[in-house]
Amino acid sequence: PHCGDGVKNGNEQCDKGASNVALATAYGPGVCTTTCKNAPFCGDGHVQASFEECEGNLNCSSCKSTMVK
Questions:
Q1: CB neighbours of 28 closer than 8 A, spacing ≥ 6?
Q2: Are 36 and 15 spatial neighbours (Cβ–Cβ below 8 Å)?
Q3: Considering only CA atoms, which of 38, 37, 39, 36 is closest in space to residue 1?
Q4: Distances (CA, A) of 69 to 2, 27, 28, 30, 45
């Protein structure tokens, strides 16, 4: 068993095998990184500077995503 084999093992938060996304570009709910950790997402309580302007506070309900899709 290892990270990237498509099976969640040991302390892996997730493992989608070949669908795992590089940590630098991983973002969104349900996205798994190549380190087998859940990717950051809008609403996780942390501002991801590369993708968000804010994080669901009083003046920010959608994180105002700056990520180009």
A1: 39, 41
A2: yes
A3: 36
A4: 30, 11, 12, 16, 22
DSSP symbol at 18: G
Residue 25's Cβ-side half-sphere holds a number of Cα atoms within 13 Å equal to 6
Give pTM, 2 decimals: 0.78
Residue 49's pLDDT band, with cuts at 50, 70 and 90, is confident
Give the residues across from 38 on adjacent strands: 32
Residues 53 and 63: their CA atoms lie apart, in Å, by 6
